[in-house]
Amino acid sequence: MQEYLFEEKTYYRKxxxxxxxxxxVFAHGVSGSSSAWLPYEKKFAEKYNVLFxxxxxxxxSKKFPNYxxxxxxxxVDDLHELVTFLKIKKFVLITNSFAALIAVEYIKKYxxxxxxxxxxxxxxxxKPPTIVKFSKPALKILTGLISVLPFNPKPRGHVDxxxxxxxxxxxxxxxxxxMRNTGLRAHFYTLRQSMQAFExxxxxxxxxxxxxxxxxxxxxxxxxxxxxxxxxKNAEFISIPNVDHNTVHNAVKFxxxxxxxxxxxxxxVLQ
Length: 271
Hints:
- Strands 1-2-4-3-5-6-7-8 form an eight-stranded mixed beta sheet, with helices on both faces.
- Helix content is about 40%, strand content about 15%.
- By secondary structure, it is of the alpha/beta class.
- A hairpin with a 3-residue loop joins strand 1 (about 1-5) and strand 2.
- The two termini are about 25 Å apart.
């Protein structure tokens, strides 16, 4: 795996791409970074072309000063610019949490590029849970206060998630590590953007799709993801027992096997 910085904006890692292999693109959630997917590199890099990147404002990617910079459409543009630069014409898009919003909007705009989609713990609110309803006004005030603070454009780094395996949704240690690494501005701007109303049009997604969700998720209700899967034509749904929102960290073996099984089962369609 080699590391790169595209246009001084987007950090990414990739293996040597080979024309006879499927390409898997991985995107992480709010306050995370591509380091969340490190165990999956070892699993998939020998068999597939793999691309892992830090979304804007996170990890080693460029930080932006304004709330509007973190609108989902900008994350979509970043992804498209990156895959276009790398000449990736067809790929499987694997997203966690907030990045599911990037995936949905990307598929709407660039359907011809995405041959399959895998959503893990997708933050696609069909009916906003109570926590979102109460959080939105507070986040509006908080982001207003943050906007007057000095802006530090310096990118951060990557959290070592091996230290937090088994941590819960509300683990102070992991959440503080995430927030410290991302910074208040990027963290809360992205979080607030994730709670905006979207016309998801899930019924229009007509590619092989897998939805994976932890049964003990306290951030996004399990039933929400079941409904997401129902609205996408022929989508598959898998729940993970005894795992919360942190499916990527806390269910590596289960997730890896589910991803590979789904990709291999649909390989003839995807190639």
